[in-house]
Amino acid sequence: MPQKERLRQLAKCVVKIDDREIADFYPYLQQVAVETSRGAAAVCTLTFVSVRSEDGMWNIQDADLFSPWKRISIEAVFGSHCEEIMRGFIRDIQLDYPDDMNASVTVIGQDESILLDREHVQKTYSTLEQPLQDDALIRELLKPHWVGSQADIAAGTTCGNLYFDGTPIRLIKDRAALNGYEFFIRENKGESKAYFGPPDLTGDPQPTILIYAGPASNCINFSVLHDGHRPDNVCFVDAPESHDDVNGDMGETCSTKSRPLGKTPANSKNQGLNDFIWRIQLPRGSTLVEREARAKAKAEETAWKIRATGELDGSLYGHVLLTSRTVSVDGVGSTYGGLWYVDEVKHRFSVDGYRQAFRLIRNATEDASPPGKADALAQVRLR
Q1: Is 257 exposed, middle or buried (0-12, 13-18, 19+ CB in 10 A)?
Q2: pTM for the full model?
């Protein structure tokens, strides 16, 4: 689609309940907000004005449409194509009747991971004599609870003595944290797909966020914080058995192994200073492999020293910015321009249009884009 044509397409929000668009209720819909994060479930909030008829019935709460556990999906339409923001189930309904007669109904939905938070499980999944790999564990947890069929599950580590008492989502998130993995459920070719694995830093980046790019600009504001007081390495030791053990050996030192999103890793090496290492204590886990995995995951997380926040005009951007994927940023200079990883996006449809407030993270500086890409973006800015 040509650039000028794309800029004229105002983004439209489409809400579906049980796969049917709620077109008759759009005149009463004040705002749609969806919060997405690589560390939490996606949650949507729909705010309606509620009107009472002469027979005492209310147009929203008495419509027999909005009730818990009905399916809900939120999409953004850009001209001739649409992109899904989230799909899931209605979780909560909140009714407010203030004395000024401005009654409202708030509908709150959560993505399909909520299906993994319904049943309390008490089970021994593995022992030291009969260990279980994480991928087998995750598939076992997904199968009886989740409705989807597509899954991309990484191997992870080996579970030792594992007895669990809680809902499946808690165990999945704990195993994800142990490995430094992410877990989310997202639309893929019209169906739901579960992902359990490391951050995907190698896939194709999302459309570029353009800052100070003249008519091509799509970013309303952009701020960067480069936090130098995050360690370059993490040293882990087991939790001491007693107070006399706190000054034991330093243990193993872990550093990030992830692909740097830039030419220069964001660390303090070669600055003429001592090594920047923080020592962390790990609870005594089932196996040494699991304790090492937790330390490596901590090292990977501390490597994200550069963070950016900002807001996109969704209509100008022309796409739904997704978490857990890379995105290119242009217009902030060569040091902080280039690839970033999307950590959080808050989508909002209102009378002000479609806005996407984002948080990005990065583990390196200097744009490592192939030669010629920067020139192409510069030409876009000058049009």
Answers
A1: exposed
A2: 0.90
Cα–Cα distance for residue pair 280/95, rounded to 1 Å: 46
Cα gap 235→247, rounded to integer Å? 13
Give Rg (Cα) of the chain.
24
3-class state of residue 317 by DSSP: helix
Q: What is the pLDDT of residues 130-151, one digit of tens each?
A: 999 999 999 999 988 887 889 9
Burial class (CB in 10 A: 0-12, 13-18, 19+), 190: exposed
d(CA 48, CA 96): 10
In angstroms, rounded to a whole number, what is the distance separating the alpha carbons of residues 326 and 364?
13
Given a contact cutoff of 8 angstroms between Cβ atoms, the answer to whether 304 and 216 are in contact is no
Strand, helix or coil for residue 161 = coil
Q: Assign 3-state DSSP to the chain and report helix, strand, coil percentages, each to 5.
A: 20, 45, 40
pLDDT in tens, 233-287: 888 876 555 545 544 455 678 889 999 999 999 998 878 888 888 887 776 666 7
Q: All domains of the chain, ordered by start, with CATH?
A: 11-115 (2.30.300.10), 118-197 (3.55.50), 206-227+305-382 (2.30.300.10), 233-302 (no CATH)
**Phi and psi torsions of 302, nearest 5°:** -70, -15
Q: How far apart are alpha carbons 344 and 322 in whole angstroms?
A: 8
Which three-class secondary structure state does DSSP give residue 177?
Answer: helix
CA distance 222 to 333: 12
363 within 8 A of 258, measured Cβ to Cβ:
yes
Q: State the Cα–Cα distance between residues 270 and 288, nearest whole angstrom.
A: 32
CA distances from 341 to 164, 259, 311, 338, 377 (A): 33, 11, 15, 10, 20
Please state, in angstroms and as integers, the Cα–Cα distance from residue 33 to each residue in 85, 186, 357, following that order.
Answer: 10, 17, 11
Gap between the Cα atoms of 212 and 220, Å rounded? 9
3-state secondary structure at position 153: strand
